[in-house]
Structure formats: structure tokens, C-alpha cells
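Build the 3D complex.
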Amino acid sequence: MSENILEINNLSKYFGGLAAVSDCSIKVKRGTITGIIGPNGSGKTTLFNLIAGNLKSSGGNVVFDDENITDVPSYELFSKGLLRTFQIAHEFSNLSVLENLMMVPGNQSGEKIMTALFKPSLVAQEEAVVKEKAKEVVEFLNLGHLSNELAGNLSGGQKKLLELGRTMMVDAKLVLLDEVGAGVNRTLLKDLGTAIEKLNKEKGYTFCMIEHDMDFIGRLCDPVIVMAEGSVLFEGSVEEAKKDEKVIESYLGRGSKIKDTN
Amino acid sequence: MDFVNAIILLLNYIFIPALTYGSQLALGAIFVTLIYGILRFANFATGDMMSFGTMMTILFTWYFQSLGVSLGVLPTALLAIPFGIIFMIFYMLLIDKFVFKYYRNQKSPPVQFAMVSIGVMFVTQAVVRIIIGPGDRRFFDGEKFIIKAREFKEMTGLNEGLALKSTQVITIFVTIVLVSLLFWFLNRTKTGKSMKAYSDNEDLALLSGIDPKKIVLVTWVIAGILATIGGALYGLDKSFKPFTYFNNMLPIFAAAIVGGIGNPFGAFLGGYVIAFSEILLTYAYKKFFMYILPESMEPSSLVQLLSTDYKFAVSFSILVIVLIYRPSGIFKGKVL
Amino acid sequence: MRKNLNVIAAYSIMMVLILMVGIFQSWNIALSIFNLCLISAVMTMGANIQWGYAGLINFGIMGYTALGGLAAVLISVDPVQEAWRAGGFDILMSLWLIVVMVLVIRFVLKRFEKSKIRTYSIAAIIISGILLIRFSAEPGIEAIEAVDPAKTGFLGGFGLPIIFSWIVGALFAGGLAFIVGKVALGLRADYLAIATLLISEIVIAIIKHEDWLTRGVKNVIGLKRPAPYEVDLQTTDWFIKLVEKFNSGKLSVIENLADRQAALNQLVIEGSSVFVKLCYSGLFLVVVIILLILTQKALYSPWGRMMRAIRDNEEAANAMGKNVVKQHLLIFILGSAIVGIAGAMLVTQDGLFTPGSYRPMRYTFLIWVMVIVGGSGNNFGAILGGFVVWFLWIEAAPISLFLINFFTAGIPETNALKAHLIESVPYFRFLLMGLGLLFIMRYRPKGILPEKIEIK
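Done.
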């Protein structure tokens, strides 16, 4: 078992002639919360989409847990323990909060139509276990009072929490969080941060998160990786990143500043 | 001599009919592609809208005939087509106002539009059948042939006759003129260019001050012209029957997709691709081989790759191959 | 509970309507409407599984219906020995060749990396295979079609009870759906609609054209029945007694013995036809109820939950480890198989198979109107849609005739417009369906009985 849970080697993705990710190499250590920051258009989300099998790469490879997972479809990555959330919440809007969580575990025998129809007792047994687990997660996320609400009716922040909750239904090894804090209010953001830390410490999840909120990053992440124009610009601690000239330039060059509220 | 005979045979039974049929499909396919590119839905009422336009043309043809007006050697229908177009456009705008506009404002997904167009399809079928009935109508008058097979034989001394129907010449001629005008309009005029821009990127086009209402209006006007002329030419060449028009929707869709949906030039060529493949694959080549092969090698069977019943199978196979290997169509879609 | 009241109310109104037809028109008409409503309901359940559960558009319903019908022929008709002797060997050889061709293609696909050469060689295999098969089957086909063409001219079937065809029809349709799904399911929704529509047209073309298998447009008539024949019933003692008992009040009024006998005979003839239809109703009801129970159970199982999740958001479902492509294929097959059952039921009831009658308006688009009007995603809604729309489809002509007469009451019969309108009465059903669909989509886009999300 190598020290790195995820190794990205020279990964590239071209859209037409445009390079969204070019020759990008990143290593994520086990047990860390690695932050990925960078100005808009620097290829962060494309990178996630490549790792998670939502896009086909144009070159390079991705190794997860000592296994080459380049261009493996996302549903297969799930069973290997690599999960992701989305920048815009992808809740199942016509399912209740509890159902959103209960659908997650893989290999439920009730998901085979024949078993679902003709072995009701087996299915009921499993369902009880899954439901118990889902209830735990709901409580953990402080969404208990909304268990039976349709996920479509939740607020933006609650949807993000729910998405995080989905990753807790199974034993994930690595979770990719795509701007999990965007559009979430301050109090809820604190809960989110706590939840992430707790999962990291208690359950040994490795996180890799794209974030814009430097406070949030500063609180959770070590190390951070700064991306610009499709490749890695900087790697190190948050404090170092804030002082690094290349990093500042890459942000200023695009007309925005690193939010520093300290 | 046999070789010339063989060439005439192919011209007579494959090339000219396929060029005619292809022109008719091409007009329909451009209609489909325009609606898809600008209004952004697959219009399942395509065939029936064409039959509505044709029906109006037929009614006016009858009216002119009753008045004794005619174009001499040319079919009276040519005179009636402009009136058919006016009614077709009126009908389309009416439907757009009462049906499609609502969903456009709602920004409904394309699937919902497609379902709504099925409602329009039902209504249009009913309207056409109630007004003119479901039967077969021929409304061609004037001189039928430009060259008759017998005359051709006498003239050239060949065994094979070449018959050139006036409807074939009219179809090809009108299509060339109409399509040239259309491409001139799309590429050279301001409105045409703004339609392109709108099809390419709606939001950007709106930001640059293009009036969407005008775009929609112009689209339906062009669609009305294409649908009526395409339908009327098909009806003149073959005959008018509502059910046939409904069925023609399938090769028309195939042509539009093969050409790259959203791309009018692709749709234009797609029409010919479909027409030629359908006819080439379902033609019985026995006579052709009898001309070019020595007697000892003459085929005993019809040498027909597919029975004519499998016309759709040809369109469909091309469609599947294109969709699998070049999903954006042979000529790449979305460049209106 | 309120929603359940809706369901009960809607179904009661529907039943009252059918009963009214029974009372005012005749019980025969009412029952034939009811039976076709049941068959339509099975079809809508199939379409609803695909559209309502998974959001897949299938405009090829006609093709699956026809395959179900073909199954009814192939299962129930007795084999034509002579035709088998004449061309059976050639046909079996061709089938064998098809199997070989498929295996070769599979081998090439598995053995070689994706490349241009592979693509071209597969194309070459397919084309040469088709030519070879055509060549080898031709004499057999001609021989078979020459065997007493007025009566048979095809291979016949297996001579089994027709009811088995309901299962075989499902298998046929499911098999076709597997192939179609493999090819077309990756397409965008509107392309999928067009592709499935085209495929169904091809299926019909094959059924119409391959006379050696289906008798084509010459039709197959006089299929075996799962229900008794009217003629037999009319001479059966217990049935006559039954009719006598039912109508004892009416009959006892008639004094004259001969008259009474004549009246009884008349009642027996009418009764026999009603009785046969009732037998079918019973069989169809059993199918509808079984399917309803299964589909409801499936919808509220973890499987149904997964399907609804996929419908809501494919990308997220994929990220949660659900193989969306596989599940789409599965649901496409299941829905089509149910439509196949309906196709077999239809031919069973009619007792004849007429390939020429399969038209997309009736067998594809009308079914879609049913699903949308009834309420997609809701099985009770889909069934109701089948009932309402079929009822209107049949009763549209009398209703519009009544309306035309009502509004033109002052105009003499000889008026050309009035005569023309009355002549066009059959086409008002298209108008009614189109307007109905447009109104429902505009003002009640979720249908009469909207999908209800039960939270337990």
C-alpha cells in the first residue's frame, strides 16, 4: 500500500484545440484533506470530472489505491471507494432525504428486480439495516427533522449537506468535494466543516476538495494545491500559498484577489 | 451500344428518380433542421404540416381550374403554391401562438416539445382528413412528359427509352432555385445571419440585441415555404395522400440527422444521400447486367439487394451507422 | 387519502361510462370497449415503465405489439407439414448461418482492438452474410410460399394453446428491445424517439414482407381461442339453461310457447357473444391485475428507488455506483416485453393477425396519448389513461356525429357542408385526441392522476 491514495500523472484534456487540463500531476496522501484552489477556468472541475470518470482523458493516467483507474466509468469507481459530490448540487429531487441516502449502498439485493419482487423478506431485512444507517447519517448532518422531505425542497446548503451525507452511507476511501461550501450560509458551513473533519479523523476518509472560500480552506486543508491554466502552479500549506508570488499573480492576473479575511 | 443502353437504363430508373425524390426529401429535411436549430425541438408534425400545405395548394389548384385559369403546359399547381404557402404560414403561426410559444417561454425541455408536436400532429391530421379526406388525390395537369420513352427510342435508335417527366424537371429546378435563395438569405442578409447567431448561441444572440420574436417569425415563414413547396412537389410527382405524407417524416428525419441536425446544407445533401441509397439498394439490376455482361453470364434472379418494402430499413441503417460513428452527422450539426 | 379518493372517483366515473354504453348501446359494444381498454392498459403500463419510471422515450410500441401478435400466430397455428418438407431445411440452414454470423462478429469484437480495419471487416462480414443468407434461403422461401398459397404458404406454428403466446410475445418483444436498446439507448432523447420509430417501421415491413413466416398481408385468420366458441355455446344445455334462468322474468311474460322459444333462442345468441367477451375480460383482468401488482411492488422497492434516482439525475446516480446504461437497457426490455404481452392478447381476442393494420398512429402515438393523459409515472394513472383514451377513441365518432347534427339542426340534409362533415366523422377522433393531448399537457402536465410520491 503506497503512501499516496491518488496519483495523477501527466493528465491532459483537450476540448477541440483548447487545453482544459494539460500535463497535470498531483499526488494526494492518505488521510489528508487536500484543497485545490485556483482562479476560474483553471481546470479544477475538469480535473475532477476526469478522475471521477465523467470525462474521457486525452492523455496521462490516474492511479487510485495502487490501481490504474484512467477512464474507468464512475459507477465502477464507486465500488472501489472513490466518491464525489458536484459543484451544483445533484440531489435526487423526487426522492425524500432518507431515500436519497438509502439508494446509495451498492449491491443491495432489492436493486435486482427479481429479488425485489419475489424475495420480500430478504429485501425488508436489508432495507431495515440501510434505513438505520441512513437515519444515523441524517442525525449526524442535523437534517433529522427533514428526513421525509423531498430533497428537491431543501435549501441549497442542505442539498450540499445531503450530498456529503451520501458519501457517508458507504466506507469511502477518497471523496472528491467540488465546491461543497458554495452557496452555503455561514452556520451551515461550520457544520459542514465539522462534518468533514470528523469523517477525516474518525473514519479515515481522505478528502480532496475544490474550494473558493479561503477561510474554509485555511481551516481544513493541508496541503493546498493551486492550479492555473490546467496544471499545478504551487503545492504547500495555505499560509505559504498566500505568500507565494506566482499564486498571487495568477489570481491578480485574472483580475481577482485571494479573499483574505484574517 | 449495350453500354449506352445500360447507362440510359440507370439514368432512367435510378439517377433521375433519385434526384427528384432527393430534392423533395431535402426540402423537408431543411424544414426539420431549421425548426430543430432555432426552435430546438424535433417536430413530429413535419409530415402532416407538409400535407396541410399541399392540401391548400390542391384546393387552390381546383379553384383555378374551375375558373379556367391555367399555365398551359405547366401544371396549374405552380400558380396555386404561393397561396398554399400563405395559408401554411398562417396555420403554422397560429399553432406557434397557441401551442409552442407557451413552452418556449417556459423553457421546456426538448422532449416536452416533441410530445406537444405529437398533439399538433394529431390535430393537423384531423384537419387535413376532414377537409380533403384520406384518399389518394392527383392534381397534376399540363404536359406530362418532356421526353417520352418511345420518342427517345425513335430519336436515338436505342433499346432503352429515357422518359423525362415534367414534374421531375420542375422539382429539381425549383429545389435548386429555392435552396440557393435560402442559402443566400442565411449567409448574406442581416436577418439570416442573426438566425445563425441565434441557433449557435441563444443567450449571446439575445445579448447582442437580436429580437427573438422576429427570429421565430422568420423561421416559421421559411418553414412554411419549404413545407408547402416540398409537399406540393412530392404530390405533383407522385400523388397526395395524407398517410404517405405522415410516413415520409421518417426518411426526412433520417436525412436531417444524417446531414447533421441543425445544419441546413447538411440536410440538403442528406436528402440526396437517403434518396440515392434507398433507390440504389432496392433497384433490381437484372436488366442492367443483361446489357453489360455477355449472354452466358446473365443473372437468373432479379439482382435486387433489398425488396422495395425495406425502404425504411435503408434510411434507418444509414441513420444508425451515422449515429454510431459520427453522432453529429456527416456534415457536423449546429452551424446553421 | 385524498389522492386515493381521486383514483376511486376517476375509476368509478370510467366504469359508469362503460356501463352506460352497455345500457344505451349494447352490452356487446360495452364489453368490446372494456376488453380493448384492458389491452390498452397493459400497453400503457409497458410504456409507463419506460417513460414514467426511467424517462426513456420509446416510439416503437407498434413494433413490439406486432411482435406479440406474431407470437400468437407462431404458437397457436398448427405446423404446415408440407411447407416444412418443402423449405424447412433451407430456413433452418439460414437460421444457422445467422447464428454463425453473430458469433463471428462477437469473436471479432472480442478478439481485436477497436480500429478502422475492425469496423470495415465487421461491415464486410455483415454484408456478405446477408447476401449469403439471402442466396441460401431464397429457394426454400419460394418453395414454402408456393405451398397452397391461398390457404397456407407459410411454415405455420407450433400448434400450442394460444395463451402461451402471451409469454412468448413478451420474450419476442424483450429480445427485440435488447437489440434496439444496445444500438440506440445511448442516443439523446429526441434521436432515440426517431430511431425507435424507424425500427418499429422496419419490424412491420419484415412482418408484412416475409410471407414464409407470417403470411404477410395475406393475414392469418381463425386462430385458436382460449374461450369457447359462440356456436358451441348456443347448443350447450347448461348455457341455454343459464340464459333461461337469467331472463326467466322476461320469458315468463310470453304466453305462447313457440314465441317463448324464439325469444329464448334470440337471447341465447346474444348471450353467447356476451359470454365469450366476458371470458376474455376475465383473462385480461387477471393479466392487468398481476402486472399492476408487480409494477407497483417494483416501483416501491429499492429497485424502483434506484430507477427514480436515475430518472432524477443520471450523473449523480452514476457517481453513486449505479450502472445507468445497464438499468436503462433492463427497463427498456421490461417495458417492451409488457407491450409484447398486450400485442399477443390483442391478436388472441381478435382471432386474426393482420400485419397491414399496424399503423403508428393507432399503436404508438395513441398509446403515448394514453400515458400522458393518464399520468406518467403512476400505474393507476397509466391504466386510467388507457381506459379514458380508448373509450373516447371509440365513442368520438358517435359523439361528433351527435354534435354535428346538433349544431347544424337548422340546415337541411342536402347541404353540402353538412354532408361533408357527416362523412368526415371518423376523423374527428384525431382532432379529439390531439386537442386532448394539448390541453392536458398545457393545463395538467402531470396527467389526470399525477405521479404521487409516497413517503414512508
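The mean pLDDT of chain A is 87.
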